[in-house]
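Structure tokens please, single chain.
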Amino acid sequence: MRLLNTLLLSALTLLLFAGKPAMAQHEKNGLTWYTDITKAYEASKKTNKPVFAFFTGSDWCGWCHKLEKAVFVKEGFKTWAKKNVILLEVDFPRKKQLPETLASQNAGLQNFFQVQGYPTIWIFTMEKDTVNNKFNIAALGSLGYPRSAPGQEEATFLTNANNILNNKPKS
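Here you go.
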């Protein structure tokens, strides 16, 4: 069964990442957010930083909007993100349709990480298997909306994120 799952994941990964999503990145609150996993991978390899994947429902998820306002727009987070990670937005909107390649890529990532609720953040490293044309993903850890006293969300979130990064295997 494990072999079957590995083979299915390999086949799925090959299909998912063969196409290029239409919009590879966008600027938001002074940060670059990639939407194309291939572009995020290239930036990750160039900078030796892990990928920070934000699974969101951009046009319907109230907790996602709350996380953005409580954490992502804050200067401390912006400084931390620029120094430590490559940002990847994995969106599941309800009111707009994503290009098929992007929707397929996002569904594959959601399935791989078994994301069942939003917001969810996964921090991971990737290697490209050029022989099989797929990515091998090594998950470092996940985050959600920080449980903290009001006004302490950013500090709690960054502490939790740093704990994940501090346990990252050295390359």
